[in-house]
Design goal:
76% of the residues lie in helices and 0% in strands. The chain has 18 helices and no strands. It has helices spanning 8-34, 39-67, 69-89, 93-121, 127-145, 148-152, 158-169, 171-175, 192-198, 200-226, 231-243, 249-258, 261-281, 287-301, 304-315, 321-350, 354-376, 397-403.
């Protein structure tokens, strides 16, 4: 682990940010429900974060280039921390929508700073280990953070303060790192036409992932509360769905590198579809059946983004991979904006099971579209693919560069 020691402050900062963000997403939904917000208003608040995140992804590189990594991080962490406290002071849907929008911009920037910095510091010899540790930090932080909710409770001011403290403390390790701040990253170009021309299937797939997975993250707590789960069970429900996302990432990725990648996308979509049917019509109010169902859903649904990104890269020409990476994040953001908003209205009208009925309909449509694309276009043979499957986080465009093999890092 000695080669990773210079990166430890950045990894600690990432853990604090990921944990605080994961905690806040679940907590805000449950607290809004306790404050009497309608489900549709909770969906609007969740949409605010995703709108902000999309804006942040587009403009953060300019900010880093103008002010540097540490100044950008400090400013955004301070603003996000203040927004958390303001949500406690002004408890109404409009204020929360605006504060979540601000936080979305800030978190997009904060993740971009950390991952741009990591990408500049990592070497080819420790890249794989850095990614492994980063994924462990991501999974551990977001899973453990869920249990702060039952430990502290939904009511009161404590969790708002804890989230604000986490954002403030994230400044400490990154401020105490060595003085060699990296050079400003190159501007990230967003040309949404490129991804569609390269792969319509990947474009639609990224939108579908945003429509479904973001709805689970925003409204999963509302579903669990609606079927009568305790706060501890809700935290477990969310943790199980998130943790399950790593179970099939590598098996699905391995076979997608050997077979027609669209076939694996189809299998993963069908698995998520079947799990959604189970949750909507068979799990009922039984906590253990719901845990099993959401585990299966997460295991199949969470890898879809990485699979779609890999499929797009199969068709990308040399020099297009950076544009493809930016495009996948952009189209995911579109789905993430629309999904929680539409799903929340469905929950308001038809009850908690409507969340997974909505997802089942979306996933069924994507299966049909995948089959249609398989009929009109030949797959890229495994021997001709320039880049294999990569397990990606949807935190910033710089994670794609961090996860890229050495030969593709500069694209």
């Amino acid at each position: 682990m000695s080669p990773l020691r210079p990166l430890i402050p950045l990894l600690i900062t990432a853990g604090i940010l990921i944990g605080g963000n994961g905690l806040q997403g679940t907590f805000i939904s449950l607290r809004a429900l306790e404050e009497g917000f309608s489900t549709s208003m909770i969906g609007v608040v969740g949409t605010g974060y995703n709108i902000g995140f999309a804006i942040g992804c587009i403009y953060v590189t300019r900010l880093i280039r103008a002010t540097g990594h540490i100044r950008t991080f400090s400013a955004l962490a301070a603003i996000a921390s203040a927004a958390s406290i303001l949500m406690l002071l002004f408890i109404d849907p409009t204020s929360w929508f605006l504060m979540r929008l601000v936080q979305g911009i800030c978190f997009a920037g904060l993740f971009a700073v950390v991952e741009s910095w990591l990408n500049a510091k990592v070497t080819n010899s420790n890249r794989a280990r850095t990614l492994s540790v980063y994924r462990f930090v991501d999974l551990g932080a977001v899973t453990l953070a869920q249990y702060a909710i039952p430990a502290v409770g939904i009511g009161g001011f404590e969790l708002f303060v804890i989230i604000s403290m986490a954002l403030t403390l994230s400044l400490v390790p990154i401020s105490l790192t060595d003085r060699s701040s990296p050079d400003a990253p190159e501007d990230v170009r967003f040309d949404i036409r490129v991804l569609w021309k390269v792969s319509p299937l990947a474009t639609v797939g990224c939108i579908v992932v945003g429509l479904t997975n973001s709805s689970f993250r925003s409204l999963g707590p509302i579903y669990a509360d609606g079927i009568g789960m305790s706060v501890t069970a809700i935290a477990t429900f969310m943790s199980v769905g998130i943790f399950a996302g790593v179970v099939l990432q590598y098996p699905l990725g391995h076979y997608s590198d050997k077979l027609d990648r669209r076939l694996i996308i189809l299998i993963a979509t069908f698995g998520a579809f079947a799990a959604g049917l189970f949750l909507a019509f068979f799990a009922g109010t039984n906590a253990w059946l719901n845990f099993a169902g959401i585990f299966a859903f997460g295991a199949f649904a969470m890898p879809l983004y990485s699979l779609c990104s890999a499929h797009a890269n199969d068709h990308a020409a040399p020099g297009q991979h950076a544009l493809v990476s930016a495009g996948t994040l952009f189209f995911w953001s579109i789905g993430a904006v629309i999904g929680p908003l539409f799903a929340s209205f469905m929950l308001d009208l038809f009850g908690p099971q409507a969340l997974f009925i909505y997802m089942v309909v979306v996933l069924f449509g994507f299966m049909a579209y995948t089959l249609s694309r398989m009929m009109v276009r030949e797959g890229v043979p495994a021997s001709e693919r320039r880049m294999g499957f990569r397990n990606l986080l949807r935190t910033s465009t710089f994670f794609n560069k961090l996860a890229a093999p050495p030969s593709d890092k500069g694209e």
